[in-house]
Every structure is written in structure tokens, then in C-alpha cells.
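Cross-posting from the modeling subforum.

Setting up a comparison between two proteins and wanted a second pair of eyes on the formatting. Protein 1 (sequence, then C-alpha cells):
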Amino acid sequence: MYCGGETRARRNPEAGPWIFAGVSIVVAGALILLIRRSWANSDVLELMRKELNPSQRKMAQLIANEFKAAGFPPVAQAAAIVNAWVESTLNPNASGDSGHSIGLFQLHDAGGGAGLSVEYRANPINNTRTILEREVLGHFGKRFRQRVADGAKVGELAAIFSQDIERPADVEGNKALRASLAEQWFPTLA
């Protein structure tokens, strides 16, 4: 007679090993996901060791840390680093647009850097936090945030960051450049 609390393994002794195998596969899958996540985290650091000089590595690490503190995963951190590299070669004192754009993310005095002094925008922590607060977490970052949540790859995120947040004059050329660099530098996130 069947009793509602009786297990399948008990009703069918041969099912026991199959249940154990199924549980083992689930656990192995979870471990693989954790390892992939750790590889993705180390991939950001790997770029900094291979492609950048010590000063650039320091700025890239600062960007990664600030984006991580804001809740962004490694793929978004990588997209931000690529964009800052194209904007300033990760030089916090970089100046563009006849002195109107300053710092890592080239904050323009009539855009994301409005109302902020040159000195403030040249400070790499201020520059990164400003791009995060005013742009990435603001109206212009809506599509970027959504695609991060959707699990988009680094090339797409770098292109969106370029178009929506940095807003360069040559939109299409910059999207392609930044996507290509992101995929080249972060192949495990591509």
C-alpha cells in the first residue's frame, strides 16, 4: 500500500544512485558557476597586469572598486575601465575639448562635470564617483543598468557606456572601438 511519505528511493531501491547522481550534478554546476565568477573577477585584474602601466593599473583598480561598491559586477567594471582608457588613457589629469573635459572619464563642464572645478574633476575618486552618480546611476545610465541586469556581455556594455554615458562626437566609431577593446581585453566576459 502506498503511503504519501514514502520516498521514491524506498519504493524503488534502484532509484537511490540516480538521485545521488542528480544531486551531484547540481552541486557540480553550482561550483562551476562560482569558479566562473571568480575567473570573471580576476579577469579585471588580469587586464591591469598585462595591458597597463603601474599608474594606469592603479586608476583601473580605483574604477573597479568604485563600480563594485556601487553594486556593479565585473562585466560592468570592465566596460567602465575600457571607456575611461579610451577617454583619458587612465590619466586623471587628462584634459580635452579645449580644457572643458577633465579627468578619467573626461567630465565636461557643461555635462556630467557641470558646476565642478577642474581640481575636483581631476581627482580620480571624485571623477569616478561623479560619473557613477550623475550618469551611470542617473537618466543616461538606464539602458546600461538594464543590460547589466540582463546579463549582457562586456562588448555590448562598453558600446552602450560610450553612446549613452560618454556621448562622444563619433558615436558609431567609438562604440565599435570600445566594444572591440573590451572583448580583446576581457575575453572571458565577451
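Protein 2 (same layout):
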Amino acid sequence: MLDKLASLSKSLNEASDELTGQIGHIEAVLSDLRLGVWAWVDLIEEPVYEKQDDGKHMQFTRKVQLGYGKNGRAWGLLIAEGYDEFWEEDRVKVTFLRDAPRDVRVAAVDKMPDLLEQIADKTAKALEEVTEKAAKAKEIATAVGKKRH
């Protein structure tokens, strides 16, 4: 039985390393595009019961989101995890997807197309806004230029 477990462990770790490598590849391609947009999609929502000091159990909702954004100084695929009832910036843990537990990385693969679609939508909106503001800035620059002469 230990031989079987050793073999399964080796295969599982190799598959997990391959998954992490592919996530890294997707992340690198997105980073090379230099889109500069943030996007998030829901990944996991599940009830969690916690025992309180008074012995009562309280139900919370564990929430995990898959995203793309900047963590520290680097852009990448991200995981945000916390409780839905307390979803505030200082109570949510954000890590890179490549550093997340294996079960989260596995679940993220199915939501990756949704995230990419969300990134594309946000990029299109950013393009529209920047194009509009560039035209407005050009009008202002032209008006300022005429007043200088």
C-alpha cells in the first residue's frame, strides 16, 4: 500500500507542478500585454461554521475570488479569500494564484475563461474612456495653444 501511495504522490505532485506551470504561462502572457486593468470573478462560496467563545456555532460564508491585478509591485493572477459577511479590504487575504493551495488552483482553471472575458470587457471599456479623454485633452491643448500666440 505504501508503494502505491508513493507512486500516487509522485504523480500528483508532477501534475500539480504542471498546473502551476501553465498558470504561470497564462500569467506571463497577460503581464506582457500590459493591460493595466483589474478584474475579478467569484470562484468559491461555501458555508463555514465556527464555534464562538460562548459555545454557539455561527455560520459564515467563505468566499474566494479569482482575479487579475497588482499585488505589491507585480501584476498577476490573484486569489482573494475571506468571509462574505466581512468582505473588506483589510480582512481579505490576497495572494498570487500560483501560491494558492492546490484545490484553489484546480478550481480556478474552470473559471479562467470567465476571468479572461471580464479582463477583455474591462480593457474595451478602458480603451473607450482613454480614447474619449485623449480627444478632450487634444481640444484643451489646442485651445491653450491658440491662447499662447
